[in-house]
Amino acid sequence: MAGFRSRADELKALGVGLYFVGNGTPAMASEFRDYMQMGALPVWTDPKRQTYAHLGFKRGWMTALSPAVWKYGARAAAAGFKQGKQAGDPIQQGGVLVVKRGGELVYGYASATAGDHPPIDEVMAKARLAAQA
Question: pTM for the whole thing?
Answer without folding.
Answer: 0.83
